[in-house]
Amino acid sequence: MNTSTASPKAASISLAQISQWFLKDARHFQILALSLFLTYGILSLGWNTQLSRIATIFATCLLTQAFWIKWSGAPWHSLKSAMISSLGLCLLLKTNLLSTAIIAGILTISSKFIIQYDRKHIFNPVNFGIIATIMLTGDAWVSPGQWGSSFTTLFFVGAAGLMVLLKCGRIDISLAFIVSFFGLEFVRSVLWLGWPIDHFGHMVTNGALLLFTFFMITDPMTTPNHAKARIAWAVIVGIITFGLNHIFILNSGAPIWALFIISPLTLVFDRFFNAQKFAWL
Amino acid sequence: MKSIRMKIMLLGLLTLISVDQVSAFCGFYVAKGDLKLFNKTSQVIIVRDGEHTVITMSSDYQGDAKDFAMVVPVPEVLKESDIRVVQQYIFDKFDAFTTPRLVEYWDENPCNERVYSEMSAAPATGMAKRSMAFDIREEDKDDGVTIEAKYTVGEYDILILSATESSGLKHWLTANDYKIPSGAEEVLQPYITDGMKFFVVKVNLEKQKSLGVQTLRPLQIQFNSSRFMLPIRLGMANSDGGAQDMIVYAFTRKGRVETANYRTTKLPTDREIPEFVMSEGLFANFYRDMYGKAWANEGKNNVMLEYAWDESSQQSMHCDPCPTPPLTFAEVREAGVWWVEPDQYNGSYFGDLFITRLHVRYDRAHFPQDLMFLNTPDQSNFQGRYVVRHAATGSFDCAEGKRYKADLRMRHQKELQELAALTGWEVSKWSSYIGAASMPDPIIPEIPSLSDTGLPHLSSCPTCPIGSTMPMPRINKAGFLILPKTNAVDGDTMTDESTVAITPTGLINEKESLAVSEAFLQAGLAEAPKPLMSKRMWLLSIAGLMFIGGIIVRVAGRKPTAKSAANSQV
Predict the structure, then answer these.
(1) Phi-psi label, residue B63: left if phi above 0, alpha if psi -120 to 50, beta otherwise
(2) How many Cβ atoms sit within 10 Å of the Cβ of residue B410?
(3) Count of beta carbons in the 10 Å neighbourhood of residue B124
């Protein structure tokens, strides 16, 4: 998939070496899973996604990343992160204009290098890219309904997400978010309002929400380093998402806004809970 | 060599579904007595900008009027001035304007240049008409349910109810001789707990007689709500186990409307289909079956986009091809669009306007939640468009002619496959079509006069050359409305005659009608909240404050100790 970033081994590469290389980095799983979701969305769900938009986002993200690698001396394997960001944008951000796609790519990647404190970027790049593009251009949007809701989605996104999370050790975030947000939703819709259980089931199987739960909120680079802090942080994201859904009445992108608002809190958590900063390799 | 003349064929949805149907709003009907009611198709117009919402509901209810009753959850106690009846013709117009359309092309005989004559023009189409006898029954007093308000609007008696328990509301309805559809109670409670009120409607037959109205006219309500949604769950109560259809016409200032909690998929479009679909009058069935197949293929839990078009006044193309003249100021004002300004010269309007037509086929199993909508910034146009290409006639003796005939066979075969794929029809009975070199031209029948139709007078045509008369539609043998295509010219050409709406209730003076719409909408807008900032700006501000706060906490606090993590990577 991404042979350019393969470890520079000898010319004769065995299957075992390839799998060893693949298993070494959780980002490989992420790239594979997100690519499959994108393929599924285009081929099976019939998303109106032009290939030119996907190509533009990838090109912009990778070129921007390359520029910043040169500028800041970051390692070249971080291009994998840029690929993940590209896939994230393709999956979540909708726009009809290539210029908007370019802006989204530049904002997403550059935010990692510009908005950072103590050499740790503050916002999840895709999250920042989506919010900034929506606010600045006004012609991009998030389409939470595009995935539909089915238990198949829950199974596949969940399973793929778990694989990645177990690899990079951020499963606690997903679980804490599920307990808080899904728990609050359950209490509200089933226990309080008295909707039948499938009303709740429809919400928790929404593909966009699951993608957020297993792939966006869990980004190890922008979440608190300490395990306890992460759990508290994820619970807060859940509560804010719930609040945005039902008090602020946001029909679209409530979790994305919640994560955006809460991201600076990571600084505070890292201030009080000291722990080793995450590194991909 | 290809097409030189194009005509538009259109089938109004009402015509399509005019047989064997009963109706639905987004609420449910409760029938008195044992009359078995089931919902089939309803049409709803939603006009929304900011938090102000105008919803118009059109019923195709065909039972006895005395048995008509409707319950719709609403977010607040509506005032009398927030409820009115509107003219049915706007639904007919919006349906005709946005419905999937068939486009005709004629091949040219490669051996012999064909001379085309202009198609004759005449007004026309027949819309579904209804007539019902009305009766009225007295209401009983409430029982544990608060009647927040009680109005008579047009031919309707309206109550706004609030309740604390679904059993109380159910009891009240039963005590008042309404039959509660099975399954309704399970969804009443969530609305009650959520603080929703219930908009309960019956027909006041005396009033209806005195007004001289023959049909159940659409009801329009307006309110302010931060929720952009349609409550469909109550409507499923009497769906009789089957799916029911709803057409939503959404008007916004800018951008398409899509559903936030269901997939919005597109109707298959721009497909070439066989000529006989037109000549045998099968387009109605084609649309119905194509929709059914596409809906089933998508998993039966999707919402279908059937039309999306930027109708802003600055746009030169308000439709392409146009099955009807573009929307007029009177029509969109009647629908509740309050922000456009009239264009005094041609009956059009100034301002931003975007129309989205969504087709929902829903049932209890696949639609557990109400429809939540999202106004996207997507300004791109979409329409359901199907192409019929008529083969050339004459002899094909030349070399090019022989090639044309061979190509034609291939094309017909492809069209048949396309037809089978789109509709699931068994196409083998049309296998002779593959060899058919040409089909006879459609026969032009007698045309009904304008006074026989329910359509508003056609008074504007944006694509007509200046000074020309507007091409009028005709009905062909198959019963389709056909408009000859005109050469598109930028800039509008309009006649200056005044628009007179011909409605089931007779001639309506446009000025009076507009004045009523104006007063209604202004009264509703007067109470619309004017937010200091948009939701997004609020969120951005909060995030900004959090950001600054986070930095301050870090800078003010002790130096981070995890220096070992200095090899940070991005």
Answers:
(1) beta
(2) 10
(3) 19
Whether B164 has its CB under 8 Å from any CB of chain A: the answer is: no
- Residues of chain B with Cβ-Cβ distance to A273 below 8 Å are none
Task: Select the residue of A140, A146, A193 nearest B190 (Cβ to Cβ).
Answer: A193
Task: Judge whether residue B49 has pLDDT over 90.
Answer: yes
Residue partners of A10: CB distance under 8 A and separation at least 6 = none
Task: List the one residue out of B266, B268, B251 whose CA is nearest residue B373.
Answer: B251
Gap between the Cα atoms of B528 and B49, Å rounded: 10
Alpha helices in B270-348 (DSSP H): 276-279, 283-297, 329-335
- Cβ separation B378–A203 shorter than 8 A: no
pLDDT digits over B131-176, tens only?
Answer: 222 232 333 344 568 889 999 999 899 999 998 888 888 888 777 7
CB contact under 8 A, A271 and B299: no
Kindly report the pTM of this predicted structure.
Answer: 0.81
Which tokens in the block code for residue B63? 């039972």
Token output for A172: 């606690």
Which of chain A's residues have a Cβ under 8 Å away from the Cβ of B189?
193-194
Closest CA to B570 of A77, A165, A6, A5: A77
Instruction: In whole angstroms, give the CA distance from residue B269 to residue B281.
Output: 19
A268/B560 touch (CB, cutoff 8 Å), yes or no: no
Q: Give backbone dihedrals phi and psi of B226, rounded to 5 degrees, phi first.
A: -75, -10
Residue B508 tokens read as: 């309506």
Our CA-based measurement puts residue A9 at a distance from the nearest CA of chain B, in whole angstroms, of 23
Distance CA B309, CA B317 (A): 9
Give residue-wise pLDDT tens across range B520-544.
Answer: 888 888 777 777 778 888 888 888 8
Q: Quick check: bond before B325 cis, omega within 30?
A: no
What does the block give as tokens for B436?
């058919």
Tokens of B289: 């079956």
End-to-end CA distance of chain B: 60
8 Å CB contact between B167 and B44: no
Cβ contacts (< 8 Å) between B264 and chain A: which residues? Answer: 143, 145-146
Q: How far apart are CA A158 and CA A205, in angstroms?
A: 10
Say whether B562 and A274 touch across the interface (CB within 8 A). Answer: yes
Per-residue pLDDT tens over the stretch B31-40: 332 223 334 6
Query: Mean of the pLDDT values across residues B67-78?
Result: 86
With H, G, I as helix, E, B as strand and everything else as coil, classify residue B553. Answer: helix
Backbone angles phi, psi at B285, to 5 degrees: -65, -35
Q: Check B550 against A275: CB less than 8 A apart.
A: no
State the sign of the Cα–Cα–Cα–Cα dihedral B363, B364, B370, B372: negative
- Listed by number, the residues of chain A in 59-88 with a beta carbon closer than 8 Å to a beta carbon of chain B are 68, 72, 74-75, 78, 81
Whether residue A135 and residue B262 make contact (CB cut-off 8 A), yes or no, is: no
CA distances, A3 to each of A18, A65, B266, B449 (Å): 10, 17, 37, 72
Contact B499/B457 with Cβ under 8 angstroms? yes
| DSSP 8-state code for residue B195 | T
| Nearest-CA distance A260 → chain B (Å) | 7
Residue B372: Cβ within 10 Å count: 18
List of chain B residues whose C-beta atoms are within 8 Å of the C-beta of residue A135: 536, 540
β-pairing, A120-121 vs A140-142, is: unpaired
Report the Cα B189 to chain-centroid distance in Å: 30
User: What one-character-per-residue DSSP string does B347-402 give?
Assistant: S-EES--EEEEEEEEE-TTT--SPEEEEE------EE-EEEEEEPP-S---SHHHH
> Is A280 in the B-facing interface, judged by CB distances under 8 Å?
yes
- Measure the CA–CA gap between B196 and B178, rounded to whole angstroms: 21
Helix axis angle, A79-92 relative to A26-43, nearest 10°?
30
- ipTM of the complex, rounded to two decimals: 0.89
